[in-house]
């Protein structure tokens, strides 16, 4: 079973993913950590030295590679924006959107020096990006899990959604 967790920066993908992976007895793979390991550079270094288009390219390659593994995959905020990657993930797994509010995400990401997009953007620009990405996330998600809950509750909501899939 491969579960891709997607959503905006700060929505809780890694935190919820860790709990979900533990509950399901699956490994957690964080795509950002995976890319850092593969590239031997931090995310800000990749952006600075090779650019965002390069980062998006290797992020898309990572999604295809990780489709072959059983696990909970916490995707970077931009991973499911690539229509081909999202389609591939849906074909080979389940794509779960953590549908958290912008206010909650912003509280978690403001001032985060490991997020190049946050560093170069104002709050208004981030909110605009959130709104544009939200439409795309919803379009590609197998399940949209409402936010406003604890990470443990979010993991439970995902398990319930997955169980409904099994009853079809």
Q: Please, could you describe this protein's structure?
A:
With 168 residues, this protein is of the alpha/beta class. 60% of the residues lie in helices and 13% in strands. The protein is built from nine helices and five strands; from the N terminus they run βαβαααβαβαααβα. The chain has a five-stranded parallel beta sheet, with helices on both faces. α2 crosses α4. The mean pLDDT is 92.
| Unreliable parts | none
Query: How do the strands line up in the largest sheet?
Result: 2-3-1-4-5
Which structural class fits the helix and strand makeup? Answer: alpha/beta
Helix residue percentage? 55-70%
Q: How many beta-strand elements?
A: 5
Strand content: 5-15%
Shape: globular
Quaternary organisation: single chain
Radius of gyration computed on alpha carbons: 15 Å
Largest sheet descriptor? 5 strands, parallel
Order of helices and strands: EHEHHHEHEHHHEH
> How many angstroms does the end-to-end distance come to?
16 Å
Give the overall average pLDDT: 92
Number of helices: 9
């Amino acid at each position: 079973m491969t579960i891709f967790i997607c959503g905006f920066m700060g929505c809780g993908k890694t935190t919820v993913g860790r709990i979900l992976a533990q509950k399901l007895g699956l490994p957690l793979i964080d795509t950002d950590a995976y890319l850092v390991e593969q590239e031997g550079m931090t995310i800000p270094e990749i952006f600075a030295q090779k650019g965002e288009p390069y980062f998006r390219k290797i992020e898309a390659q990572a999604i295809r590679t990780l489709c072959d593994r059983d696990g909970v995959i916490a995707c970077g905020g931009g991973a499911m924006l690539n229509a081909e990657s999202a389609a591939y993930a849906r074909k080979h797994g389940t794509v779960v959107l953590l549908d958290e509010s912008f206010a909650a995400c912003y509280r978690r990401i403001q001032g985060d020096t490991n997020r190049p997009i946050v560093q170069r953007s104002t709050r208004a620009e981030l909110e605009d990006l959130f709104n544009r990405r939200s439409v795309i996330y919803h379009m590609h998600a197998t399940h949209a899990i409402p936010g406003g809950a604890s990470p443990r509750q979010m993991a439970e909501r995902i398990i319930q959604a997955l169980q409904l899939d099994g009853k079809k």
